[in-house]
Specification:
The protein has 115 residues and is mainly alpha-helical. The protein contains 7 helices and no strands.
């Protein structure tokens, strides 16, 4: 379960406070459901955010992404279905992911490439 374990550990270091375990579990499900890391990268490319996701994979600086931009990556049904688990709304989920995903993907690709 290497990828998912790495993701959980990274999320744990980024997030704090109530709901951390729920958020980690939900984020892991999202990645697994989208074809893993490669599927997630494809989703970003299709949404026009290829430059951002490639910066997270590379060894250079990570470009930021906004919650609003992530609404183009993840459909509203996905974000809305996760929101009650985290005690927030779809925009709140998108904002959480915007803060978390650059660091998570960066940590999962330490050599600057998908493996």
């Amino acid at each position: 379960m290497g990828l998912l374990d790495d993701l959980g550990g990274q999320l744990g270091s980024i997030l704090d406070g109530a709901g951390q375990n729920d958020f980690m579990s939900t984020a892991v499900q999202m990645l697994g459901g989208s074809g893993g890391l490669n599927g997630l990268v494809d989703m970003f490319n299709k949404a026009g955010l290829g430059e951002q996701v490639q910066s997270w994979i590379s060894t250079g600086a990570n470009l930021p992404v906004s919650g609003e931009q992530l609404k183009n990556v993840f459909n509203s049904d996905t974000l809305s279905s996760i929101a009650p688990l985290l005690g927030t709304n779809a925009s709140g989920v998108a904002d959480m992911l915007a803060k978390m995903l650059p660091g998570v993907i960066d940590q999962l690709t330490p050599n600057g490439k998908l493996e």
